[in-house]
Amino acid sequence: SDSYYIGVARCDVTGPVVQVNMMGYAHPEQVANGLHTRLYSRAFVVADNQKQNRVAFVSFDGGMASQLLKLEVVKRLKEKHGDIFTERNVVISGTHTHSGPAGFFQFLLFEMTSLGHVEQSTTAFVDGIVESIELANSKLELGRIKIGSGLVDNGNINRSPTSYLLNPEAERARFVHVVTSRDPLGMLSWYPAHPTNMNFTNLLINSDNKGRASTLFEKMMRKPGETLAGKEFVAAFAQANLGDVSPRTNGPNCVGFGPGKDMFDSTDIIARRQLDAAKLVYKSATERLDGPVDWIHQYVDMTQQSVQLDDGSTVTTCKPGMGYSFAAGCTDGAGAFNFVQGMTRGTPFWNTIRDILAKIICTVEPPREYYNCHQPKPVLLPTGYMDKPYDWHPTIVDIQVLRIGQLLIAAVPGEYTTMAGRRLKERLYNEAVIKLACSSGAFQVVLAGLSNVYTHYITTPEEYNAQRYEAASTIFGPHTFQVYQQKYTDLIAPLVAGNKDDVDLGPTPDLKPANQSRIAPVPHPDKLPPGINFGDVISDVNMTYTPGDTVKVTFHGANPRHNMKLGSTYLEIQRDEHGSWTTIYTDADWSTKFTWLETNSSAPPADITIYVIIEWNIPTDETAGSYRVLYHGDHMNEVGTITPFTGMSREFQVS
Ligand code: ZN
């Protein structure tokens, strides 16, 4: 008795790997100069056994979903497939890697450090997400979904423990880790941890601990001879309520680090801790999902919502604003100037700067009531009024829940803290199970973080009062969480009763402003010194290596942005297998690194030299034999013609 039609797919969304700011730390100097691991979109499409209703859940290796991404993806799907996929039954959730490209938003604050919009980032994400949903949908087959939960051993740490401890004691012991599976199709898990093991000094595009766990799980499930392009097992380590959760388990303070010897090692360790827990649950899960597939969705303007609290009082949300402690940064990032966490009062100096800026950036200056609304947060950036040259922050958000049998997936537009997430899950659980006395048994509620539209953080009211980094970044004011809790709760009754059409769609957000800033660098024609060809070796490999060594070769190269090589690779590590060269590793593999260096960029174009460095850290269990390194590039001439080329190292031995 198979319960559902299930389809899974994984597509490459890597995007530009050089000249692009990374999304997450908002650090102007964190501009990518190469590639460590490729980024993927992992799509899961589930339909009931009559194919009446279907939902699509996507977890992709990016900083977060943006409203622009979701609207573009849905627009494309509607054009091609009618009403099969809409904004209402598609959830797009980012893993929150801080080492992916930036520039895929329609709001200015998110594109400050990327110098505006980056078309290649957006295109790679949109194309790959659409393709993964379509591919998963084309592969629907009848199957079963099992669910389970488990504990990840030492996989994260709370980075704002002082705010967290303000929450009542009794709420602190639970979390759910859900794995759905049907051998051999796929596995989907939700576990909260910031993918910030790679810190802001990293300049190689990288999917951090979530992506590393996914590729390790997928590799484990791959059958001998099965290639990346074929029908393959898809394992997603999706993001949950990670707001105050750091993966730097050696310390929860502002200089958090660990647990490995360097950031690559730490990423691997935290990935393997998630992997171990997922493997255990995957093998032991017995509970089967059973019941309808459904979804419910509403757009809500968060700037003008109110909610009645338990004591009978009515409270409202505010237009967006960022507090002083936002500028102080947090455990996983870095702050600036004299800002510290926990600031509940502004300073005359910065308030003056703020008010001068507001006169320039806001059509209407923020009134006193606006600042009062955010109390006790001192507002540093009144983003809700900042609309020049276009809007700085979103105001309309998606409130959305998917249902697969007894599993409810609440897609939330930002980073819920541990406790805010638990309270929301508990409320939804109670609403579904207790109030409605459902026949299909106990519901399991998971939170899919960083979904659909990004609105920074969501803390509990207690945490908001402490005004640490997460609270200063809770943009719709002190009652943000209570309003969300009410909005999600209101959708549960119609969802469980199958009355989703009774719910009003709400105000539709705009796709994007026409005057979006585009000053980020774009790739130029490539130059070479006389007598040199693209792909020529500058410094070659050694003749012999032993496992554990790092092979390194440097080529005359070209800007990799001329061809993003989606679904392909910039490099190959090949081994001589009985006289024929066989590709063993690509640029997607953990053991390889692809670095691009442009020298003399201020000199005349003829003097610009572009180096490409390919490194391969030979795994300790690597087979002995003859190897070589290939570099695949594309160069552009003055009239814009792009020509592929290949460079090759000499042959070397691994003994
Ligand atoms: Zn974050």
UniProtKB/TrEMBL annotation:
It is an enzyme of class 3 (hydrolase). GO terms for biological process: ceramide catabolic process; long-chain fatty acid biosynthetic process; sphingosine biosynthetic process. It comes from the Eukaryota. InterPro entries: Ceramidase_alk (IPR006823), NCDase_C_sf (IPR038445), NEUT/ALK_ceramidase_C (IPR031331), NEUT/ALK_ceramidase_N (IPR031329). Zn(2+) binds at residues 96, 194, 415, 457. Residues 489-654 form the Neutral/alkaline non-lysosomal ceramidase C-terminal domain. The active site is at residue 246. Its cofactor is Zn(2+). Residues 4-486 form the Neutral/alkaline non-lysosomal ceramidase N-terminal domain. GO terms for molecular function: metal ion binding; N-acylsphingosine amidohydrolase activity. Binds 1 zinc ion per subunit. Its EC number is 3.5.1.23. It catalyses: an N-acylsphing-4-enine + H2O = sphing-4-enine + a fatty acid. Keywords: Hydrolase, Lipid metabolism, Metal-binding, Sphingolipid metabolism, Zinc. GO terms for cellular component: extracellular region; membrane. Belongs to the neutral ceramidase family. This is Neutral ceramidase. The lineage of its organism: Eukaryota, Metazoa, Chordata, Tunicata, Ascidiacea.
